[in-house]
Design goal:
Elements lengths: L6 E7 L6 H11 L8 H7 L5 H11 L6 H16 L3 E8 L1 H6 L4 H19 L2 E9 L4 H12 L7 E5 L11 H9 L3 E6 L5 H11 L3 E4 L7 H10 L2 E4 L1 H6 L11 H6 L3 E4 L4 H4 L3 H11 L4 H13 L5 H21 L2
Helix pairs in contact: 4-6, 15-16
This protein binds adenine and zinc ion.
């Protein structure tokens, strides 16, 4: 069922899809030095106690990305991989600021990604939207520089997101950047309530005016916020394997996905940084299905939510939901 259902991914960081093999290959190609010799060295380093532990290796890993071709290759490898998971739509994050800090031009990044997304639409029929994330650990003026660049690429960048370190950096820090981005037509989303509290989720809704909550685990700590999210049908993009590997939850049976479904929230399943957390989209579906004992109905609901919570137009959403219904019909017939 999971393998065959058409589905969308709404929370995946392009730089988090960098597999160790490609990391080492690009390091050689671009003469970037890394503290790893072999693929095993890289994988051994992926033991994280918290978000910051992971972010340190994630920013180090992405330092091998230099040319337009590198960004193309990385995006293309992701699309090829998830095509076999029956992914039909992706809303992809990228982090331009760390690249710009290494003197990689914004254009190089966006052009490489966009060329691959266009090829993915042609070759695999995967539709996409690109979301530029502001990294919280860099100052406001740095974020404004990235926004200035994004304004020149509006035809390719749909939304503005907020990621990186959450503890100690409240959403309000970027209220002015988000206001300017919204005025330019970028649709706002933010990583909140991953390690931070439900207050961060509320602040992002109220001050950044986000239309989707990335993670949002701790939103479930506040019943009035849960009612608000359910009432507004605000999507939550949850990432089970990421939560487990970053110790946001002690084990997968503690994933808030089932509780969110039962509360009537528009919750979706996503991979976040699949190379670092040991699983792509279907691995995440399988992990929650098994550990939370999800029914077939729950799994179908999650696949439907992935489109309902996307930024596709209503007719595009309907076409994808119809595809799911047809697929479920076929599966039920073949299973008697
Ligand atoms: N950047 C990449 N993955 C992230 C995550 N899970 N949380 C915050 N920032 C990120
Ligand atoms: Zn994320």
């Amino acid at each position: 069922m999971i393998d065959n259902l058409p589905k969308a991914e709404l929370h995946v960081h392009l730089e988090g899809t960098l597999e160790p093999e490609m990391m080492l290959k690009l390091a050689r190609r671009n003469k970037v030095s890394l503290p790893y010799e072999t693929v095993e060295d890289v994988r051994r380093a992926y033991e994280f106690d918290c978000l910051q532990d992971f972010l340190d290796l994630y920013y180090l890993g992405m330092s091998v990305l230099v040319t337009e071709q590198d960004f193309f290759d990385l995006t293309w490898a992701y699309l090829t991989r998830v095509h076999s998971d029956r992914l039909t739509h992706v809303e992809l994050f990228f982090d331009p600021q760390p690249h710009m800090d290494r003197n990689v031009a914004f254009e190089t990044v966006v052009e490489g990604i966009t060329r691959a997304l266009e090829a993915g639409a042609k070759e695999f029929g995967i539709s996409s939207k690109l979301i530029m994330c502001i990294v919280r650990h860099l100052p406001e003026e740095h974020a404004f520089t990235a926004l200035e660049c994004a304004k020149k690429h509006k035809e390719h960048i749909y939304g503005i997101g907020l990621d990186s370190t959450e503890r100690g950096i409240p959403p309000a820090t970027f209220a002015r950047v988000f206001k300017a981005a919204r005025e330019e037509g970028f649709v706002p989303v933010a990583h909140v309530g991953e390690e931070g509290t439900s207050e961060n989720v509320k602040e992002a809704l109220d001050l950044l005016k986000i239309e989707r909550v990335d993670h949002g685990n701790h939103a479930l700590d506040d019943p009035s916020l849960v009612s608000r999210l359910a009432h507004q049908k605000t999507p939550l993009t949850m990432c089970p394997l990421s939560n487990w590997r970053l110790k946001v939850i002690p084990d997968l049976t503690q994933s808030p996905v089932k509780k969110a479904l039962d509360e009537g929230l528009l919750v979706t399943i996503n991979s976040d940084d699949p190379s670092y957390f040991g699983g792509y989209i279907n691995d995440n579906y399988r992990a929650v299905q098994k550990n939370l004992n999800l029914s077939e109905k729950d799994v179908i609901q999650l696949a439907k939510n992935s489109f309902a919570g996307s930024f596709l137009s209503d007719p595009e959403k309907q076409a994808q939901l119809d595809k799911i219904d047809r697929q479920v019909g076929t599966l039920q017939k073949t299973m008697g």
